[in-house]
Amino acid sequence: MLTKVFNRIKRERFIYLLLLPGLLYFIIYRYLPMAGLIIAFQDYNPFVGIWKSEWVGLKHFARMFESREVIQVLINTLEISVLQIFVAFPVSILLALMLNGLRNEMYKKLIQSMVYLPHFLSWVVVVGIFVVFMRGEGLINSILAEMGISAIPFLTEPGFFKPIIVLQTIWKEAGWGTIIFLAALSGVNPSLYEAAVIDGASRLRQLWHVTLPSIRGVIVILFILRLGSVLDSGFEQIFLMLNPFNMDVGNVLDTFVYYKGIQQGNISFATSVGMFKGLIGLILVISADKLAKRLGEDGLY
Predict the structure, then answer these.
(1) Burial of 172 (0-12, 13-18, 19+ CB in 10 A)
(2) I need a labelling partner for 222 at 20 to 30 A (CA). Which of 121, 174, 179, 297 fits?
(3) Side-chain half-sphere exposure of 291, counting CA atoms within 13 A
């Protein structure tokens, strides 16, 4: 058995060499750091190191579940993630369907380039653009003032925080998210559309009965992967949008870990919160994968 494996690796060595950079990235930056999770079970003291720090077992996990602050942060994280999954995620699908329907190739490529561009902007730039537009003396409030409407505190009113976060995510990532869906749409058999036209199906019927079923597997897989990061709301974006006025509704697990672990030096407690977040993501991915297989889809593995 091992001989066959080594012979195959030797025969396809160039393919494995192409995989090597990606494997090294995940090993070095994803798997090796997991050893540091041990400090979640300690009162970690950076001056004495991991092995000499006091072991406290599940103390920090018990504290986490007893903390009302953690519960509120978890609720904020779930609310933002659910909005991003059920509002922002379908936008990429709709945009891909619209782009796929364009017949003029030059116009299609132009639109694709325009919707891809925001993905390459950092969150600092994206948030900066939104702040310039939505601040008290910004463009939007200036237009409202011209119309005789008083200024709206978009950046300080807690009720606007989550819609703005979702809007930013859609503007920045929806175009980039269409790439995989467009690739899947390109693989749809044209004869299916021809048969649908012969049967008298309208464009809407073709979309519902041919296009969507053909890319359903891709949608399910990407949805499962998105569930894995359901508690990962995006540190940079949230951190840059937070201020004392919206902290109660905007503080999520990522920013909470930063404040507790880096600013307040409570590294062990912050690590336990981060470990809990990763565990929930793992459970969701496995559960969603099993559910997808029961519904007849391929799943992830």
Answers:
(1) buried
(2) 121
(3) 11
Give SS3 for 149: coil
Contacts of 63 by beta carbon, 8 Å cutoff, 6+ apart: 269
233: phi then psi, degrees, rounded to nearest 5: -85, -5
What the block records as the tokens of 51 is: 């092995």
C-alpha pair distances (Å), 55 with each of 59, 156, 223: 9, 42, 39
- The candidate with the shortest Cα–Cα distance to 99, out of 88, 77, 114, is 114
Distance CA 129, CA 46 (A): 39
pTM: 0.82
Residue 168 banded pLDDT, cuts 50, 70, 90: very high
208-229: buried (b, 16+ CB within 10 Å) or exposed (e) per residue? eebbeeebeebbbbbebebbbb
pLDDT tens across 65-107, in order? Answer: 887 888 888 888 888 888 888 888 889 888 888 888 777 888 8
- Please tell me the distance from the alpha carbon of residue 162 to that of residue 21, in angstroms, as a whole number: 37
Q: Which residue in 185, 206, 170, 168 sits closest to 92, CA to CA?
A: 170
Residue 30: pLDDT band with limits 50, 70, 90: confident
